[in-house]
Amino acid sequence: MTEAFYEKFQSELNLLSINLEKNKLDQFYKYFELLVEWNKVMNLTAITEMDEVITKHFVDSLSLIKIVNDLDTKSYNIIDVGTGAGFPGIPLKIAFPQLNITLMDSLNKRINFLNEIIEKLGLEDICAIHGRAEDLGRDVKHREQYDLCVSRAVANLSTLSEYCMPFVKVGGCFIPYKSGKIDEELTEAKHAVFLLSGKIEKTERFLLPGTEAERSLIQVVKTNGIPKKYPRKAGLPSKEPLK
């Protein structure tokens, strides 16, 4: 199975012009095994079949390089908001070890899983923190401290922007991973992004390898310091998205 894993994974990585050494491929395989093992006792992901994990979790996570072209050389300070089972943060850390990664999730059980992955894979300059974006976005240790904020969390762009933009330094970027058609969502979120001191700079659209699954990466640049009233208190960004 390991050979099949390596072969499929590297063939899809070639489409991103990423070539990983054997030890990194080994780390990805161990991550896959632990994901499947832990998923038997807690709900981490609906996707556990090997080929799907490779394409829909690992390759999807690494597709960030399509919009951040120097991801493989720069030591960006990145926060992954609502990371869940560690996507995209852990694949980014394995492939590009010079990155500094903070994984953030609101469920402590998932933090335990992430810490196990970090330990078992011997990853450094990466940490998992427990908390809600609405709270940590007001914490001086995290507010406007990151070059990049990424998120594959399922929420509309207005809500997700309010969760994520507070973490981004002025001049940095928030980059959400979105599925399906997003034109209407982009239009609806424009004013919310403006209120949060952001500007939608670029959208990278693509299909995941061997699928009809549409993906988009949206580059939202932080143009100014964010108003103090954002993020609003817990629950409000999802119940009453900015318009």
TrEMBL record:
NCBIfam families: rsmG_gidB. S-adenosyl-L-methionine binds at residues 82, 87, 133-134, 152. One of its GO terms (molecular function) is methyltransferase activity. One of its GO terms (biological process) is methylation. It comes from Lacrimispora amygdalina. Its EC number is 2.1.1.-. The keyword Isomerase does not apply. Keywords: Cytoplasm, Methyltransferase, rRNA processing, S-adenosyl-L-methionine, Transferase. Signal peptide: none annotated. Belongs to the methyltransferase superfamily. RNA methyltransferase RsmG family. Pfam families: GidB. Specifically methylates the N7 position of a guanine in 16S rRNA. This is Ribosomal RNA small subunit methyltransferase G. It is found in: Cytoplasm. InterPro entries: rRNA_ssu_MeTfrase_G (IPR003682), SAM-dependent_MTases_sf (IPR029063). Its main location: cytoplasm.
